[in-house]
Design a protein that fits this description.
This protein has about 400 residues and is of the alpha+beta class. The protein has helices at about 15-45, 60-70, 70-75, 80-100, 220-225, 225-240, 245-280, 290-295, 300-315, 315-330, 375-390; strands at about 1-10, 120-125, 130, 135, 150, 160-170, 175-185, 195-200, 210, 215, 280-285, 335, 360-365, 370. It has 2 domains: about 1-185, no CATH class; about 195-390, no CATH class. The radius of gyration is 26 Å and the shape is globular. The N and C termini lie far apart (about 55 Å).
Length: about 400
């Protein structure tokens, strides 16, 4: 398993200028390679690849070699970065063709606009030493006489790690981060016997409800920052595009969005850690968030917009992913179950009790069970998790309902 450790770095002004220059040239390369592929298909009916042994003229890797000799600006960027970017372009087109075959939304790769600098990613980074004396050592940057980059290692790298990828990211030309991806050779944790079990129902009124009746509410990160973000967006719209004041306002807007993302991630990391510390088995819904958002489009426009924002702000997919990988590391069990019918089914007798979104209480007319609808759904999720894992069969039988 490949695991990434993220650290904050503080390049000097000279180092930052060089790195930002590399990022801008990487953006050019992405747009040029995308335009090259589009023109080759539209004009000659040819498909370009990252590398093709049988058709070398269709290899963008060979085109890169020629471009570096013709354009000195491209030669300033390490070739490993450029090759890695061309591989990501190739992966983007492979995903596009796969979606076309499946009949879904194709999602043709897009050009990167001004201000959206791509990350600097070194693939196959195990051939050199990247951390020296607690500082980040980048190839070619030291060759330019700019030295190493200051780095805050708030947690140590594991012993015996083997580096796989190194990725640099910049937010608003101000905050810099490095992600060090390494192969995790640590011995797998022994499987923990599931004695403490919990079912989780994700929602919007409460972020999650557990099968033992606990409700956890999430701060409204998006709404709290909405006034500030709206003000900056209006200021940005009034300014001349790409002027100095426009760029300054754009960076303020990017930082505001970055702060919201950081607050959301901190909440999710903390909550997932608390749940994993308390329970050995976690059962959750296997949510198809994209499909949920598609269904919301059938609603009135005002309702649809609000639900889209709330679903996106909740970040259910990322939270469940955190639970999954943390459970795997600790030898605990995480299971996803089909969500269909968990709200309508009675957790005591198994009968179907129809509810609308306005009905917040489960009131079963057959067995008399009365409880919060989300708690009832969480109990059903836990029962399905047991059944899916084959640990035990829940002794819940549907009652006979006469029409």
């Amino acid at each position: 398993m490949i695991k990434a450790y993220k650290y904050r770095i503080y390049p000097t002004k000279a180092q930052a200028e060089v790195l930002l220059g590399w990022m801008e040239k990487q953006r050019w390369l992405w747009n040029f390679s995308l335009a090259d592929r589009t023109a080759a298909w539209e004009e000659r009916g040819e498909r370009l690849y990252f590398y093709s042994k049988s058709h070398p003229e269709q290899s963008q890797c060979r085109h890169l070699t020629k471009s570096r000799s013709l354009y000195p600006a491209f030669a300033e960027v390490p070739v490993a970065l450029q090759q890695g970017l061309l591989k990501r372009v190739d992966i983007a087109f492979q995903s596009f063709f796969r979606r076309v075959k499946k009949g879904g939304k194709p999602g043709y790769p897009r050009y990167k606009r001004f201000g959206s600098s791509p990350n600097l990613v070194w693939q196959g980074a195990g051939s050199r030493t990247w951390i020296r004396n607690g500082q980040l050592s980048l190839p070619k940057l030291e060759a330019l006489g700019l030295g190493k980059i200051k780095m805050i290692m708030h947690r140590p790298m594991p012993e015996g790690y083997k580096m796989k990828t190194v990725a640099l990211r910049c937010v608003a030309r101000e905050k810099w981060y490095v992600s060090l991806g390494h192969e995790n050779y640590a011995q797998a944790a022994a499987q923990v016997e599931p004695k403490r079990c919990i079912g989780i129902d994700m929602g919007l009124s409460s972020y999650l409800t557990t099968s033992n009746g606990q409700h956890i509410y999430k701060p409204n990160f998006y709404k709290e920052a909405e006034r500030k973000r709206t003000k900056l967006q209006r200021q940005l719209a009034r300014k001349k595009k790409r002027s100095k004041n426009w760029v300054k306002t754009l960076h303020k807007l990017q930082l505001a969005q970055h702060d919201v993302a950081n607050a959301r991630a901190y909440f999710q990391q903390t909550l997932s850690r608390e749940i994993l510390d308390q329970y050995d088995l976690i059962a959750a819904e296997d949510l198809d968030i994209a499909e949920m958002q598609e269904q919301k489009k059938k609603m009135p426009k005002r309702v649809e917009t609000g639900l889209h924002r709330n679903i996106a702000d909740a970040g259910w997919g990322k939270f469940l992913w955190m639970l999954e990988y943390k459970a795997e590391e600790e030898g605990k069990t995480f299971v996803r179950v089909p969500p269909r019918g968990t709200t309508q089914e009675c957790s005591r007798c198994g009968a179907t009790v129809h509810k609308t979104l306005r009905d917040r209480v489960h009131n079963c007319p057959y067995c008399g069970l009365v409880m919060d609808r989300d708690e009832n759904a969480a109990k059903n999720i836990l029962a399905r998790g047991f059944e899916q894992l084959g640990l035990c069969q829940p002794d819940v039988k549907p009652v006979e309902v006469t029409a």
